[in-house]
Write a structure and sequence with these properties.
It is a single chain. The protein is of the alpha+beta class. The relative contact order is 0.08. Strands 4-3-2-1-5 form a 5-stranded antiparallel beta sheet. The radius of gyration is 33 Å and the shape is elongated. Helix content is 26%, strand content 19%.
Length: 150
């Protein structure tokens, strides 16, 4: 039985065989409406699953501060302020190393918040500038922005 050839189509000839000649005309693949209605997986009202319990953001933050030995300030629930750097942490506690003071094991539930000591210095500089009436870096003044130390 002889193979059926398609009539030539007008257009530029590149000399290479056109792959569409062998496959035939392109066809839009779209399921019929009856097939879509039969599928139970396409039911309406399907809710998304719950988000994960942990995003690992806390772990990433602690690891970064531990590796750099970043000085931090920890404010406890009772108002006490502790300074040092984080040596290690786990799910319920973290160990704070301090200079000229004993190291502490702090329960996370006793911590109100913590921040980097450098942020406190930058905040004080901004406050002093605004009290003196100097232009603030946030207001687009002539003071160059602070460069974080590494």
């Amino acid at each position: 039985m002889a193979s059926v050839r398609k009539p030539p189509t007008p257009g530029p000839s590149t000399g290479a065989p056109d792959p569409l000649d062998e496959l035939g005309p392109r066809k839009l693949i779209r399921p019929s409406l009856s097939e879509v209605r039969r599928e139970p997986s396409a039911s309406r009202g399907v809710r998304k699953g719950a988000p994960p319990d942990q995003t690992n953001a806390e772990s990433f933050y602690y690891l970064k501060q531990m590796q750099a030995r970043t000085p931090v300030v920890i404010r406890l629930v009772d108002g006490e302020e502790l300074r040092g750097w984080i040596e290690w942490y786990d799910r319920d506690a973290l160990k704070l190393n301090r200079e000229n003071a004993p190291n502490l094991l702090l329960q996370k539930r006793a911590i109100k918040y913590l921040y980097k000591e450098e942020e406190e210095r930058q905040f004080r500089r901004r406050k002093v500038r605004t009290e003196r009436g100097a232009p603030d870096e946030d207001k687009g003044g002539s003071v160059p922005p602070a460069v974080p130390s590494r």
